[in-house]
Design brief:
Blueprint: H1 6-16, E1 30-33, E2 42-48, E3 51-57, H2 72-94, E4 101-107, E5 128-134, H3 139-152, H4 154-160
Antiparallel strand pairs: 1-2, 2-3, 4-5
Length: about 170
């Protein structure tokens, strides 16, 4: 339904009750900082089930880059928007709500003063996701899908819950 393979989802959901690994993904990203000022600042290869792509990132000039590629945060925010939109479309399909067209906007603000060493300021303002759906479904059904999306979207979950992390830095020889 609307480019979501519901039968596959239902089968994996059923099978993952006895084998949770079927519904899990592990990621391992690797990237490099480019010290050559003629290149974008950062590159990294991203693998996906049917391929691989090299992504480039470059800070805007006020953060020391040249703005020659999207910034790292641009990818992060695009990922959040894509995750929310994908979850919305999937939840609609699973509920049998047909979507003819869907558009999504994400707006937010970022304050870089802390990163610039100017003081201690919250770096992020709120995320505002707006989904526009063309569908024969009722507004009540669309709101039910929105509620399911808010409950099930991994990006929303990550914004609402502390995600554990570790860091390390090692001097190469």
């Amino acid at each position: 339904m609307h480019n979501v393979r519901v039968e596959q989802i239902n089968e994996i959901a059923k099978q993952s009750e006895s084998d949770p690994s079927l519904a899990q993904l592990d990621f391992n990203f690797k990237g490099s900082w480019n010290t050559d000022s003629n290149k974008v600042q950062f590159t990294g290869d991203v693998k996906f089930p049917n391929g691989e792509i090299t992504l480039e990132a470059d800070f805007p000039s006020f953060l020391g880059g040249e703005g020659r590629a999207p910034s790292a945060l641009t990818y992060c925010f695009y990922g959040a928007m894509s995750c929310y939109g994908s979850t919305f479309a999937t939840q609609a399909a699973m509920a049998g709500v047909e979507i003819e067209q869907m558009k999504i906007n994400l707006t937010l603000g970022v304050d870089f003063r802390s990163a610039l060493g100017v003081g201690s300021f919250p770096p992020m303002k709120g995320f505002n996701f707006e989904v526009f759906v063309k569908s024969n479904a009722s507004n009540e059904d669309i709101q039910k899908i929105k509620k399911l999306t808010d409950e099930r979207c991994p990006a929303i979950w990550a914004m609402q819950n502390p995600v554990p992390f570790t860091t390390s830095a090692t001097k190469d020889k």
